[in-house]
Design brief:
- The chain has five helices and eleven strands, in the order ββαβββββββββαααα.
- By secondary structure, the chain is an alpha+beta fold.
- The protein has a seven-stranded antiparallel sheet with strand order 3-4-5-6-7-8-11, sandwiched between helices. Strands 1-2-9-10 form a four-stranded antiparallel sheet.
- A hairpin with a 6-residue loop joins strand 4 and strand 5.
Length: about 190
């Protein structure tokens, strides 16, 4: 914990967040804020819950190799898009303002690219309901995957297996966020 201009900040590194994902045990910051594992298949993701702000923030982690990682970030509002941080996961962190229940990410945390209009709320919902139980191959044969590859993988300069992992992880992350916010629309097996 650190104090910056009278503000109590708790700093969370990827190693700490990885424990939340692997154990499923949340980090209780205080009565108003906590970090939980985001329940999702085939991805490593967490959500920050702030009762003070009545908000959730979501983070998904993809390690392509020990020196190359991707962090997807979303405030959960599918109309606001998402951000992509290119950074070795060992260097990723965020801080939480304990009193206000908000996350801060320093500008120096990797290369950030914002994708504000790649997906809209209705298209995420439709895609999520259709592909929730789909295999990677089924997702890859859809139009949404092709669009993701063109606008995300190509734009960020990824090719081959890395681009495939990037695209599939993002799409599974967006589905997980959608169903976390809209649990009644989640298809049952």
């Amino acid at each position: 914990m650190s104090v910056e201009k009278g503000v109590w900040l708790m700093i969370f590194t990827y190693d700490v967040l990885k424990d939340v994902i692997s154990t499923g045990k949340p980090i209780i910051i205080n009565e108003q804020s906590q970090i939980q594992k985001l329940m999702a298949d085939k991805i490593a993701a967490i959500k920050f819950v702030s009762k003070i702000k009545n908000e959730h923030e979501y983070y998904c982690f993809l390690e392509l190799n020990p020196g190359k990682g991707i962090v997807f970030s979303s405030d959960g509002n599918t109309f606001d898009g998402f951000s992509v941080f290119q950074i070795p996961l060992s260097e990723f962190y965020f801080d939480v303002d304990v009193d206000k229940g908000i996350i801060g990410i320093e500008d120096g945390v990797g290369n950030e690219t914002d994708f504000l209009d790649l997906f809209t709320g209705p298209s995420i919902g439709e895609f999520s309901r259709k592909y929730h139980h789909a295999s990677d191959e089924e997702i890859m044969h859809g139009n949404t995957y092709e669009m993701t590859d063109r606008y995300l993988g190509d734009y960020l300069g990824f090719e081959g297996e890395d681009a495939q992992k990037l695209n599939l992880t993002l799409l599974r992350f967006l589905m997980a966020v959608y169903f976390d916010q809209n649990p009644a629309s989640k298809p049952v097996k």
